[in-house]
Amino acid sequence: MLRKEVFDAEEFNVSLRAYISFVRRKIKKNPNYNIHPIVRALSYAMENLQNSGEKGTYYGLSGDAKDNPEGVYTQLFFCVLAAYEEKMISIVEFYDLIEDRPVPIKVLSYILVLAMKFDKFEGNQINIDHAIKAINSVIPILNCIKFNNNEWKEARDHFESVVKEYKVNASVEHDEFKLTASEFLKIPSNTPIEEYPLAISSTIEHNWLYYEYRELFKDNCINIVFSSRTNEYSKVDCLNHVLSVLYGAPSLYFISQHEWKYFSDLRLNEVSSKRPSIKRNDPCPCNSSKKYKKCCGK
Description:
Blueprint: H1 9-29, H2 37-52, E1 56-61, E2 77-83, E3 89-96, E4 101-102, H3 105-118, E5 125-127, H4 128-138, E6 142-146, H5 152-165, H6 174-184, H7 198-212, E7 222-226, E8 232-234, H8 235-247, H9 250-257
Parallel strand pairs: 6-7
Antiparallel strand pairs: 1-2, 2-3, 3-4, 5-8
Helix pairs in contact: 1-2, 3-4, 3-8, 5-7, 8-9
C-alpha cells in the first residue's frame, strides 16, 4: 500500500505531466527561474516527447552548452524516457554524469515529488519550516529537525565543554570528531555562526539538539538537523541536501535497513549500471536545436 502522502501511479503520472508543463512555462517566462538539474533534464526529455507525439525513446540533458560554453558543471544529469501507447511513459534511465553513476529510480521519485511540493511556493527560496514539513511528510524514513539559531551560544558553549572533556556521542566517529574538535578550538569564541565552516557548525548544532532535545530524534530513521542562517532556504540546495542523504553514503543504510514500499506500482524501471549514450549526430538533449557533436558532445 502506498502512503496517503505519496501519489499513486495514475495521480503521479498526471501530476508529473502538469508539473513539467508548469516548469517549462516558468523557464520561458523567467530565465532566472532556478530548478533542480534533475527536473530540468526531465523537462527537456518531456518537451522532446511532446513535440514528437510518437512512441519511442527521448532524451534530456540538464546542462545547456550555449549557456555554459566552458562546460563547467557541478551537477549534470541525463534522462532517457520511453513513450508507449495510451500515453504511458517510463523513465528508463537517469544518469549522474558528474558522479558517473545511475540515479536510483526510488530516489528520483522522491526528489520529483518534493520539487512539486516546493514549487507550490513562489520564487527560488522556501521557508525552512515549509521545507521540513514537506520532507518529513513525503519521506517518512527521514526525520528533519530544525535548529533554533537563537540557541547558538548555548550550543557552542556546550560543544566546547564536550570537546574539553572529550565526551563523544556514540553516533559520531571518533577520528572525525577529533579532527572537528581540533579545528573548532582554533576559532575564537566570539566568532558569529555565519563565519563558522559548515561542517563544524553542523556538528555543534547536531550535538546540541541531541543533548537538549533528544526526544526529537526517532529510532529507525535518518535524523537530519536542518539549519539556516535565515528563515529562507534555496529550493535547489534543499533538494540537494535530501539527495545527498538518499544518494550518498547514508543511502547504503537507507537501502539495506528498510524495505521500499513507495511507488511500487509505477512503470519506472530500476536503472542499470550501463552508462546511457547518445549518437553524435542525434539532436542534442539540451534542446539547443544543434547536433549533439556540435553542442554538449564537444
